[in-house]
Amino acid sequence: MSPAKERPLRIVVAKPGLDGHDRGAKIIARALRDAGFEVIYTGLHQTPEMIVAAAIQEDADAIGLSIMSGAHMTLFPAVVELLGEKDAKDVVVFGGGIIPQDDVPKLKEKGVAEVFLPGSPTQGIIDWIRANIRPRVAA
What we know:
The protein has 139 residues and is of the alpha/beta class. It has a single domain (3-132), classed as Cobalamin-binding domain (Rossmann fold, 3-Layer(aba) Sandwich). It contains five helices and five strands; from the N terminus they run βαβαβαβαβα. It has helices spanning 23-34, 48-57, 72-85, 104-109, 122-132; strands spanning 10-14, 38-41, 62-67, 92-97, 114-116. It has a five-stranded parallel β-sheet, with helices on both faces. Helix 4 links the parallel strand 4 and strand 5 (114-116).
């Protein structure tokens, strides 16, 4: 398929867990939309099961997780694991929020492709997506 015929990347932006702060997720969702990506924002208080179901239903290429609650070491790997169980390992998981630098390599070991820490410029996130995520092949 030539680049001109490829559909825009489809990205689910989700807020896992009980975290009630979604300003950052909304800023990222808007920046990704403005950059030409198709964005599905799932809203607050999503379980890993809800996030994975949305990604599969929407035929997403990636899931961007945003977390402020400190539960990233549980919730991010749960999303990766569920994608594997649902035969959707090709959906790329990345995330950001209030995550200690020391946890970044641990999350990557558990299958999270990239972690963006506070202060990450939106253009840097967009550039990373463009360089690292490709449209999924239709089943």
